Amino acid sequence: MVTPAGLVVLTDRRSAAGPLDEVVQQAVRGGAAWIILRERDLPYAERAALAQRLRSLLPPGRLIVAGPDPLGGTAVHLAAADPLPAGIPLVGRSWHGVEEVSGVDYVTLSPIFPTSSKPGYGPALGVTGAAETRAPVPWLALGGVDSASRAASCAGAGAAGIAVMGAVMRAADPEGMARELAAAFAGGRADRSADPQPARVRVEGSVR
């Protein structure tokens, strides 16, 4: 099973600096390996059509749909209270250390850092707190990952990837922002692999 890793971008058409399709396309050019389609308030037919368009921008299977309905695809990301659907090859869930993860292939942990997309949401776990949750499946760091140093620190804490919304959606240059975050995360993963003491957690350039 291939699970999300690297830079994973969540959509938000309301905050996007341009048409959502174009912003996603630029993010993919910059290194976004996966896209999570949110937009759960759209009418079904409109959201399904959007999913089809976004799939054409990605390798097969790399579009994840938020909610239990994959909209004709193969991957979903569930909220904590969403039921586990049957017959979906790739299932992720928003996890806070207590939700059931049976049947789930990956989780997101949030918020890692304070986030302007959801002000007041928290408290922030920090990368150390996220690592200490000891997620039983690969985890993505979500919330406030808006700089190269933060992306690298998430990699140092053992995240499989970073899930980013506002930093890419609102960027004047989504491709450039995606490239910066993806490269920093990849560099952090390389540093972690080379570290003779991988239990240490790198935080914004320091080591704990």
TrEMBL record:
Cellular component aspect of the GO annotation: cytoplasm
Taxonomy, superkingdom: Bacteria
Chain residue ranges for the region called Disordered: 187-208
Any GO molecular function: thiamine-phosphate diphosphorylase activity
Domain Thiamine phosphate synthase/TenI: residue ranges: 90-168
Recorded metabolic or biological pathway in which this protein acts: Cofactor biosynthesis; thiamine diphosphate biosynthesis
Pfam annotation, one family: TMP-TENI
InterPro entries per record: Aldolase_TIM, ThiamineP_synth_sf, ThiamineP_synth_TenI
Keywords per UniProt: Thiamine biosynthesis
A Gene Ontology BP annotation from the UniProt entry: thiamine biosynthetic process
Function field: Condenses 4-methyl-5-(beta-hydroxyethyl)thiazole monophosphate (THZ-P) and 2-methyl-4-amino-5-hydroxymethyl pyrimidine pyrophosphate (HMP-PP) to form thiamine monophosphate (TMP).
Protein name as it appears in the record: Thiamine phosphate synthase
Organism: Actinoplanes aureus
Classification lineage: Bacteria, Bacillati, Actinomycetota, Actinomycetes, Micromonosporales
